[in-house]
Every structure is written in structure tokens, then in C-alpha cells.
Design a protein that fits this description.
This protein is mainly alpha-helical and about 350 residues long. The protein is about 75% helix and about 5% strand. Strand 1 and strand 2 form a beta hairpin. The chain is globular, with a radius of gyration of 23 Å. Its main location: membrane.
Length: about 350
């Protein structure tokens, strides 16, 4: 992966393509080469599967209809994850071929040049997915923990407005870095060939510094804290509702509606809470891995792309990259298990003539 990128961006983008040659640290060079090939061999199937799964998600949610704020939010998240993985796969394939081949490949166009340019578009949509996930968690948390105050607050129109605002804000935060570099055709007089070259403006270092502070620190860590808080509140509410239902069911078995009335959450509400909690939990898990890695990097300066433990750094970055791809790919299992309309629509689309 590009060692010029910070560790968080590398984990998100998965663009590391060069294995350090010197055998330093806890893992030797040959082992690093072997494990790197394995990791890259895993990344492409996961990214491709994620593209397929998120395409299915968008089709199913579009078929269900945009009449529910939760479905609209999940629809937006699926599109964002789809675009993120599509950009990722476009530069992951040539990088993987180079790594697995074990020898230099004469590309008509250097994949590393394209990687360094395209990666920021992938990061843009990854960060948008973070913001959408955070909004979903906040909206559902407020609706179930403060139902009287917020039950009618997160309407369909407001959801569209919030998602639009989040998209504009995310784009505004990333435009400076994207605009500070571009691809230009340049001719190499020695080889008499013309290739695309990445050209960065003089403001690029300052823009990247701003990007690292806001998009790689302030935004993700703020979203992480919010998601952890919401996840804790949702888990407590879900546990309380389940205990209340069980208690009422055992004490008043003749009244089927008594448990529902006391729990304050309908069966549909509970299923939605479970789905949102799992989506938030997957994001929290991946973000905590990145946070732990950043803390270790700060505590052990040699744990870096150019330090003594460079091989370990590269491999742990590769592992976290896989979890990042999985986070953007496996939501379909959550939707299928906890969303009845999603499950019915999915079966209708792919199993025509069969009833769920």
C-alpha cells in the first residue's frame, strides 16, 4: 500500500502494493510476502461480492419503495457502499496482480499513479457511509429511548434532507484534496511514451494536513463516539423490552397483547432496533481496530510503514482492510434476517413464483 498515506486511509483504501524489502521486526520478509499475497487474494473476492450484494440491496429497497425513513437510510447506505467498493476494486485488481505475480509487470499505465488518484474518491464514499451509519443510529436511538419527543421528528422528508446535507458536507470536506491533484499526460523523452502522471498543486501539503485532521480524526472519532453511545442505549432498550415481554407473557399468558403494550416496542420496532444495532456494531468494531492501531503506532514509533516493525504494520493494515471491505459488504445478511419486507422482496425478485 502507498506508504505516503496515513494508517487510517490505508486501512480504508487498501492501496498498499509494495512490500518492504528489508527483513526487520517481528516478521521476516518471506513470511510478509506470502501473507501479503494471501491477504490480497482475499480482498478481491470480498470487494466483488460486496458490489454484488449492495447492488442487490439497492434493487430490493427500490422495489420496497421509499416510504419509510429507515428503508431510505439503508438504501442510501447501500449506494454509498456500492460506489466505495467499485472505486476500490478498480485499483485493487492491478495492485493484486502485481503482488501475486511476484515480479514487475509492464503496464501501459502505472497502476500506482491511478491508485493514488482514485483512492480519494473511494475514501469520500467510505466517509459518507460513516456519516449515514451514524445518522441511522442516532435516529433509531432517539425514536426508541425518547419516543415521546422524537417519534414524529424523523419523518421521511427530514430524512431526505439530512441525507442530502450529509452528502454535501462530506463532498465539501473532500473536494479540497481531490481538487489539489489531477492527472496529466506527459511524454517521457527517453522512452518516447506518453503516460498519465499525477500532478499535485503547491497547496497539496496544507490541504492534506487539513484533510488528515478533519476527515481522518475529527469526523471518524466523533462518529465512533456517537455510535458507541447509541449502540449502548439501543442494547439496553432492547434488553429491557425483551425482559418486559417475557415477564408479561409468563404472568399473563391469556392476554397476548399485554406484553406488547408494556414493552412499548412493537415486534417491528424490535426488529428494526436489532438491524440498526448490528450495522452500528460492525462499524464500531472496524473503527476500534483502526483506533487501537493508531494508539499502538503512537506508543511504538517503530510500528510504522518505515519503522523497524514495518512488516507487521503492513500485515495488520491488510487485515483491517479486509474487515473494512466486509463492513461494507455484509449488511445484506442483516437486512434479510431482520426486515420482513426486504426478505419478501428479495425472494420475489430472485425466486419468481415462490412465496416467502
Amino acid at each position: 500500500m502507498d506508504t505516503a498515506l496515513d494508517n487510517t486511509t490505508a486501512a480504508v483504501a487498501g492501496v498498499e502494493a509494495r512490500v518492504q524489502v528489508q527483513a526487520l521486526g517481528l516478521i521476516d520478509y518471506n513470511t510478509t510476502i506470502l501473507l501479503t499475497k494471501v491477504l490480497y487474494g482475499i480482498c478481491i473476492p470480498i470487494a466483488f461480492s460486496g458490489i454484488v450484494m449492495n447492488t442487490v440491496n439497492t434493487l430490493v429497497f427500490a422495489r420496497i419503495g421509499m416510504r419509510d425513513s429507515v428503508n431510505v437510510s439503508f438504501f442510501a447506505l447501500s449506494i454509498s457502499d456500492l460506489v466505495y467498493l467499485s472505486f476500490t476494486l478498480s485499483y485493487l485488481i492491478p495492485s493484486t496482480l502485481t503482488i501475486i505475480s511476484g515480479r514487475p509487470i509492464k503496464w501501459l499505465q502505472s497502476p500506482y499513479t491511478l491508485n493514488s488518484y482514485i483512492v480519494w474518491y473511494a475514501v469520500l464514499f467510505y466517509d459518507l457511509s460513516i456519516l449515514i451509519t451514524t445518522y441511522i443510529a442516532v435516529a433509531r436511538c432517539c425514536c426508541v429511548t425518547l419516543a415521546l419527543q422524537f417519534r414524529s421528528f424523523f419523518t421521511l422528508s427530514r430524512t431526505y434532507t439530512v441525507l442530502g446535507v450529509l452528502s454535501v458536507v462530506c463532498l465539501a470536506l473532500h473536494i479540497p484534496l481531490i481538487a489539489s491533484q489531477n492527472l496529466q499526460w506527459k511524454t517521457d523523452k527517453k522512452t518516447n511514451t506518453t503516460k498519465l502522471t499525477l500532478v499535485r498543486s503547491g497547496a497539496y501539503p496544507d490541504v492534506q494536513y487539513f484533510h488528515d485532521i478533519t476527515n481522518r480524526n475529527v469526523v471518524p472519532y466523533t462518529c465512533l463516539a456517537i455510535n458507541i453511545t447509541c449502540l449502548a442505549a439501543l442494547t439496553f432498550t432492547l434488553k429491557s423490552a425483551t425482559q418486559t415481554r417475557n415477564m408479561m407473557a409468563s404472568s399473563a399468558p391469556t392476554d397476548d397483547n399485554s406484553g406488547k403494550k408494556q414493552s412499548k416496542l412493537s415486534t417491528k420496532d424490535i426488529q428494526v432496533v436489532k438491524a440498526v444495532s448490528l450495522v452500528a456494531a460492525m462499524f464500531v468494531f472496524c473503527s476500534l481496530l483502526t483506533t487501537i492501531k493508531a494508539l499502538v503506532r503512537r506508543a511504538i514509533p517503530e510500528y510504522d510503514s518505515r519503522g523497524q516493525y514495518r512488516n507487521l504494520f503492513q500485515l495488520t493494515t491488510g487485515v483491517m482492510t479486509i474487515f473494512t471491505y466486509l463492513n461494507a459488504s455484509v449488511n445484506i445478511t442483516v437486512y434479510y434476517h431482520f426486515n420482513t419486507k426486504y426478505r419478501q422482496s428479495l425472494i420475489e425478485i430472485f425466486c419468481k413464483g415462490k412465496k416467502p
